[in-house]
Design goal:
The structure holds 2 protein chains of 2 kinds. By secondary structure, chain A is an alpha/beta fold. Chain A is about 40% helix and about 10% strand. Chain B: Keywords: 2Fe-2S, Iron, Iron-sulfur, Metal-binding.
Chain lengths: ~350, ~190
Amino acid sequence: MIDVDVHANIPQIEALFPYLDELWVDWITERAWRGPVMPNHHYPVASERAARLEWRPEGAGPATSVGLLQEHILDPWNVDNAIVNCYYGIEGLRHPDWAAALASAVNDWLIDQWLSKDDRLRATMVMPARDTAAMIKEIRRVGDHPGFVQAFFPTRSDNLWGQRQYHGVFRELAARDLVVGLHYGGTTEGAPSSTGYANYYVEQYGAEWQSFATQVTSLISEGVFTDIPALRVSVLEGGFLWFPVWGWRMNKEWKGLRREVPWLDRPPLHIMRDHFRFSTAPIDAGPPELMAKALQWIGNDDMLMFATDYPHRHDDDIAGFLSLLSAEARAKVMAENAREWYRL
Amino acid sequence: MAETKIVVGKADDFKDGDRVTIETSNGRKIVVFRQSGEFYALLNRCPHRGADLCKGRFVTNLTSDAVGEYVFHGENRMLACPWHGWEFDIRTGQSYFDPVGTRARPFSVQVQTGDEVRTELDSGEASYTPSEYAAAVAEVGGSSDGPQPGPYKVESFAVSIEDSYVVVSLRAARPARAPRPPRPEEPIKEAIG
């Protein structure tokens, strides 16, 4: 079994001090800075959305050490590989040098505290996502480490990721066979919906899939995959049942509007099937008999990859979901698709 | 029945870009275009949903080998259907979008008589039952690798200039068919700026 989305949380800012220059340690200490604020907005500390009760250790934050991950996920689930994501909110920082230093520190912490402590683990590198030159610099610095299989792209970004200023970043990733990990999260001022901010937590949390759909549309329309045919994108925590519906609509529009984007030589849904995969958590599950039908919309068994999204709680009925899949599809969703996608 | 000829009008009366529709004695409407100096004729009925092709606009074929690079094919020989924008090559009537799945070979200018396209060619309508549709889609993995020729094709007619008159040649009539369902109402046109 492969789990494509487990989280590593920075226990406290001091955990990064060994990986920061003295300048930045001093900078942080002088200000009593506690870290980027964004994740705490989206995952309030006591919320079970942030961490299941049974995954909250005494005297430490959830998902703050490799030991907890082993105890809660790797050993009980008999996991072959798990992909560690650190959603720290670096993209919210506006200080370009500080953001770059912090991204480097997080990547070095991932290597030192996670990848080197359990060879079942792979990780997603983070980047200072407001600055393409700095992104490329960080990819060149750590992207060749064999433990990194993916780069973290928060779904709420100031500019849509498909736009041309990012194509150079994607080329660097494709050259190293690194996957683009489009993941829940984003800039402090990034709205979850296409038309702005929500008033309630439940509303904000539920609206986030819209930004995923917008990013996917951008990546395809802008011709990223025409220019970089080897590029692969994982949609993590973005849901998945929306994509066939999106694809049918886009295919229809493309037939009449394709001359505007002549670099699209195939229907958008076809491009999506070749270049995108989706993590299963959270599962957009309806009643089982309707869900079984909806899963047929996806059209093949290759598109989904299992994820627990540890330590979050999504109230997913994983057993119920898996019971709707054929034995062959289950094997693909639980391991084979991710193994092929991440070259594990 | 032998091939019939219909005289449309004097060639000199057609300016480039002009179009005229004619009706045959058995009620088939045919649109004749003068486009880029040449004359073309098509059945005035989009095989997709039945729109009047005489209301279509000509578009330039545009292709691209890389993002931000455009290959502008100067000749305006692609007719975009007024309803859904699907493009047809007026020289052959060939559609380049196929909602049902693609067969790998393009159709020649001659009308095909294969069972699969006979109905579309005869009536300008798709005639797949839901199960046939599903089978055709499954065969190509759920989507076509377009744009490339599909089975949809508008019937085209030979146009010649005889003594400076434009003449459309009709083919021999086909065997009688079962009556077709009524043509859908044209949607209300939205104001387009």
